[in-house]
Amino acid sequence: MNNLQNGYNDPLDAFEPKEASQLSRREFIKLSGMGAGLALAFVSVPFSKSATAATEGREFNLFVQIDPDGVIRIYSPNPEVGQGIKTALPMVVAEELDANWDDVVIENSPVSDEYGRQRAGGSRSVPTRWEELRAAGAGVRAMLIEAAAGQWGVPSSEVTTNQSMLIHAASDRRTSYGEVANLASELNPPMVDSLTFKAPDEYRILGTRITGTDNMALVTGKPIFGIDLQLPNMLYATYTKCPKIGGRVLKANLDEIKALPGIVTAFVVEGTVGVTRFDPAGVSVAPGVAIVAESTWQNFKARESLKIEWDTGEASKDTWGDYVEAAVDLRGKEGSTVLADQGNASQVINDATTKVSSQYGFGFVSHAQLEPQSCVAHWQENMMEVWSTSQTQSSVRDSVSALLGMPKGNVIAHQLRGGGGFGRRLDNDYIREAVLIAQRVDAPVKLQWSREDDMAFDFFRIGGFYNMQASVDENGKLNAWNSHAISLSADGEKPNSGAGLRPMDFPGELLEHFKHTQTLLPSKTPTGPWRAPSSNSYAFVEQSFMHELSVAAKRDHLEFLVESMGEPRWFREGDEFSLNTERAVSVIKTVAERAGWGAEQPEGRALGLSFYFCHAGYVAEVADVSVDKDKKITVNKVWLVADVGQIVNLSSAENQCQGGVIDGISTVMGLEITMTDGRVDQTNFDQYPLLRISSRPEIDVHFLNSGYSPTGLGEPAFPPLAAAVCNAIYTATGDRIRELPIRKSGYTI
Question: What stretches of 625-701 show up as alpha helix (H) in DSSP?
């Protein structure tokens, strides 16, 4: 039997709204008789795309407007939280449009059902928009060619394009896109099947380094983040919730608070009973006390005087130490629920001469995005308008309309740049808090969380444990695997968000004897997606344990890892979420070669190798680590080789990989959230030490051009890092680390 997930399902799919107030995209496609790509690329936009868009510009489709002066406005639909998507998606359009990048102006698109899933999560923004945006660009290019050909009285086949210019070589005539935009926009859009797309060797924009459209504003301190938004007559709100997650308000000193300087009002929000769960389109709101003031400072000062009596009857009583004790009791045992069982793994391992049995553990962690949650909401004339940094913009209107019991058409949403996200902004809990407060105030209101709010009321990356057993045969080859996931669950039936298992192509599809079981421990602590959900912790376990096995087998780890991939094959042909062992081996061998694997290292210094496949991305990493006698480590250099298909923006692709490595080192070294009787112990960065810039290693990033369509990079670079570092530490010192963060084992950086 094998009840493990076969293939990949985006965890956010379960939270997509089932009904829309407008004509759905599927219904539009059906009624129009068009193919999906055509409908997505060429449905007319029923409103102005941007308040700053030039009124004389011609709109060709959802994504492209060309002004008479030649300015090409491309609208980027997905949320920007530092991953570079606001620039990357327009690059796809501009490439197929054959535009001069200097002519391009990028703006955020409106938040509308017509743009489909406007979200940033799962490393899916580029791959899910790839074909759609190529068609949008190529379609406009075809319309421009047709318009120019008509003006010149020549066949369209004789007209070519280059850098926003239309050219008829035979008559030596040229004209700009802007000069024919008016005429071209009146033409019927072409069928997708008729479009001509560029071959990769014709790309001039894709695969190059393009600076982010907001970079100058970023480095010069311009107010471009959600937290920076200012509106006329705006008021400022805070929202205080029970420190024990899930508690509700019994009473508060509201009259005293209202009498303080600058305070407009203060009131109790009854909220939802019990602990809220991750649900981007949901209606749950944690109970609390809202304070609205004329300034943020007046609000924060008033909050210091707030006294609340809480009812904690339905609150969480989780204590991390209890889970650690439970895991100790389960060490070496199989789980009560069997998720996969093929062959006879238990017996083969028991009978083996060379076998390894270990338990691994990892704690909860916070998203810790540098910009705490904030949202501006304005209630007027039975309309709710919100400005937010949500990573699920397509769920904001659904969530707010359901919460307020009003038509979705009465909710207007605007997307703003977020100062980091890593999955935290996928849930819209802070937006729901803001709109409930705004309903009680006759002015725009900005809800501002503090860092302490952000750390106490996160949807954390879940902690957990794994019992691992495996064996190798007389030739030192992996032959049986038995893993036991000790996870946390609110309902006793399924793991909490972020703890679900990834597809078990490796090693389950490669071994005759494979077993995987599960134990669920009760937990109410809210959890959610965190950069590379599940993979962010399981990769440490899997790839550290693979190194344990290669050591036990007395094999070179590179040789052992490559051999374990078996013969080159794609387990499910055409399924990008299914492991292709040929691509896996290619990145493993390439990173080893670039790092000089096998070269002799000085005492106290070693290389560690790790590979992981997730979010359709193949990434292998080698970490060069030094350890001194006091257990202080230095990560000297990290080599990273990735195969994620076609690279869109080389600059942001490198940045994503570098960020994944730095985030990985930060997490492996010192990050952990614990809780005591339902209350999070850590409150700020003095107790949650992010990596300092002085500890940043040299990072060598290299991409393999495998010829596949692009997949995402926000997540795949993170998972391999922890095992690469810990495997290097073992090789340098003989100390096997099986628990994260490694500061708990006495290491510092």
Answer: 650-670
